[in-house]
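Researcher: Structure prediction, please.
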Amino acid sequence: MASVDGPEFAQVVRDTEEVTRLLETRNWDISASPKIFARAAACDVVAKEMVFIHDGRIQTRVGRLVMLGYGNGFHLMGAENARSEFKTVSSHILDEINRQVGSNGLYDFPEFTKLGKIQNVDFVNASMLYQVRDYVFYSVLHGGGIYPLAFEHFMRSFSAGKIVHNVDWLPARPSLDPKQPVAMQGECLAVSYPTPVVEWMEKPIYGGMVMETMHIVNLLTLEPTKISHPDLPLVEEGKIDYGNQRYFLRRFAGISPKDGVQGPPMPAKSRKK
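Model: Predicted structure follows.
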């Protein structure tokens, strides 16, 4: 969100346009404007609980996200199919699946319980970014900066004909201490689009705070399948009744590294001065 308004904001917009044009003339080489590099990680997705419903024509994904971060405001971006429809929904389907399989959801992970109290936050200002220029302009305008890995990821996504969906949120009780980030849970986001096959989400990008993501992924189909997940083991399969419909369930769960993780942090005593 903008930190100023009125004439000051108009000036920020002009400055942002100047930076964006510079990068555009240099074929989006962000090294041409080092000041737009993100200097420090502020937030990462630490856990995801999701259901993918595929009826043979349409895939609908409902997800509960838990983030860990410090600062007054954040935004979350993800590349999606250009024909996607988005909305916010309740967590009822996730809760019902957990009830029928006898699970406590993310609390089945001992690591999740260590997060402590989790703030509920509202996702606001949903927007769509349709090209690299939109992504650069938004990132510079809102002062978050650009991570090279994320930039390369979204460049590939735009080239593949995808869009980027973005939401903002504000914690009620923020932390400004990177050593004591707060845990935040957003309302469930649902996205639907036509596809003849099940399409899994890409790994979350490592931003510097949380190297791994806790995942629970439920796949519901109208016919039995042997579909596997590229990163997670199968932990349960069976049948689920939901919305007057019986589905075949394949449930995957585990902890996987984020995209871009290079390895464990180097111990302080081993670092060169």
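Model: The chain has a mean pLDDT of 89.
Researcher: Thanks, that helps.
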